[in-house]
Amino acid sequence: MTKTIAINAGSSSLKWQLYQMPEEKVLAKGLIERIGLKDSVSTVKFDGRSEEQVLDIENHTLAVKILLDDLIRFNIIKAYDEITGVGHRVVAGGEYFKESTVVEGDVLEKIEELGLLAPLHNPANAAGIRAFKELLPDITSVAVFDTSFHTTMPEKAYRYPLPTKYYTENKVRKYGAHGTSHQYVAQEAAKLLDRPLEELKLITCHIGNGASITAVKGGQSIDTSMGFTPLAGVMMGTRTGDIDPAIIPYLMEHTDDFKTPDDISRVLNRESGLQAVSGLSSDMRDVQNGVNEGNHDAILAFEMYVDRIQKHIGQYLAVLNGADAIIFTAGVGENATLVREKVISGISWFGCDLDPEKNVFGVTGDISTDAATLRVLVIPTDEELVIARDVERLKK
Fold first, then answer.
1. Is 137 helix (H, G, I), strand (E, B) or coil?
2. CB 66: neighbour CB atoms within 10 A?
3. Residue 334 assigned as binding residue
4. Which residues on neighbouring strands pair with residue 13, listed in sequence order?
5. pLDDT at residue 396, rounded to an integer
6. Residue 315 belongs to what H/E stretch?
7. What is 246-259 written as a DSSP string?
8. Catalytic residue among 56, 69, 138, 146
9. Which label site among 58, 92, 115, 350 has the fewest CB atoms less than 10 Å from its CB?
10. Is 383 assigned a ligand-binding role in the annotation?
11. Which residues make up the binding site for Mg(2+) (predicted)?
12. Is position 146 annotated as part of the catalytic site?
């Protein structure tokens, strides 16, 4: 019986979950926010309790120290050495990492190098790894990559129609993201449908502030909406999703907003999407409030968001030549009943049909009518559990 902790580090946050393994029992979980800022907030949840403290946390190493000390303070563990493994979510594994990997040798340096592919994520993921390495240097440390699940895509799906040298020399190709989530919900869908995963064709929709859609055949990713970076695909909270690339040189020539690569990255990654179109927020709940109030820009943002999801589902129905189920997961996918309703009502020709009595907030499972031939499922994702399982598999 061991204890493994799963970590998802952001630039100013650290989300964690502690498991007793191999039972896969959650002992505690928490979130540290506003790292590097004043009035940081650390929350620990365990045994039905929620404990919160506000203090200044200067960096990720201090955040990890506070987390570990809280585990002792609340008698969740008695000593650091009870934790024998840590798994870190890392967004971009590029072509270096086809599967989860023990962090040793030059692995961490390669993760930092791959920050070019996920500038909002990999540097923060690496900071979390360094912090744990400093405080718990002897435990098994595993990097679990969002991109690994998508390494099964065929070349026709992951290559771009650019000169070949940009692939061979610069590794420009589709990598995808959210792989642990797509993998987990596909496996859970097979259980819900009571069919072997190897027989199923699924479209998994991880829709949160970041969003991606994946075509899964026989348990393997064969295409996904995110691309070279997590910027591509459907419209997101603050990201554009797919746009005409000619827009960038046009705006560089005709505005003062796009002077450097950093300017371009900032606008497309942080200042676009729902936030930009609605003029309200990147949070779907705020946008829906605007829709209910008749706000034109909020209505437009909502309609664009739904439109892009429908189009990608349509693409993957073609790629798969039909599907057995569409799965909604992540913050918006699991909770926004109106998003699910509007997405599915617009593609009902394919055989999907929602039961309004099932499509409610907090639902888990099949929300289709009995007559539907293409099932629609809501499955809460559990990326942390996938991470913990990989740690156990790779422990020496």
1. coil
2. 21
3. yes
4. 33
5. 65
6. helix 296-320
7. THHHHHHHH-SS-S
8. 146
9. 58
10. yes
11. 8, 383
12. yes
- Residue 387 has phi, psi (to 5 degrees) of -60, -45
Sequence-separated (6 or more) residues with CB below 8 Å from residue 253: none
Q: Which residues pair with 25 in a beta bridge?
A: 20
Q: Is the pLDDT of residue 10 over 80?
A: no
Residue 209 DSSP label: S
C-beta neighbour count of 112 within 10 angstroms: 16
Q: Is 335 annotated as a binding residue?
A: yes
Q: Is 208 annotated as a binding residue?
A: yes
Query: Residue 159 annotated as binding?
Result: no
Dump pLDDT digits (tens) for 153-196: 999 999 999 999 999 999 999 999 999 999 999 999 999 999 99
Residue 243 scores a pLDDT above 90: yes
8 A C-beta contact, residue 317 and residue 344: no
Residue 234's pLDDT is 97
Which residue's structure tokens are 């070279």?
228
Mean pLDDT of the chain: 92
For residue 211, the SS3 value is strand
Cα(277)–Cα(48) distance, integer angstroms: 40
| 3-state secondary structure at position 107 | helix
Question: Would you give the distance in Å from CA 63 to the centre of its chain?
Answer: 22
Residue with token string 């072509």: 95
Neighbours of 238 (CB within 10 A): 19
CB burial readout 74-96, b (16+ within 10 A) else e: eebbeeeeebbbbbbbbbbbbeb
Alpha carbon distance 44, 90 (integer Å):
23
Encoded amino acid at 309, one letter: I
Q: What share of the chain is helix, strand, coil (3-state, %, to 5)?
A: 40, 20, 35
Q: Are 140 and 391 in contact (CB under 8 A)?
A: yes
Least confident range from 41-50, 67-76, 115-124, 130-139: namely 115-124
The pLDDT of residue 327: 98
SS3 57: coil
Distance CA 313, CA 327 (A): 11
Nearest alpha carbon to residue 46 among 67, 21, 22, 60? 67
Instruction: Give all domains of the chain, ordered by start, each with its CATH number.
Output: 2-145 (3.30.420.40), 195-378 (3.30.420.40)
Residue 146: name the closest of 120, 127, 172, 165 by CA. Answer: 120
| Tokens describing residue 90 | 């890392």
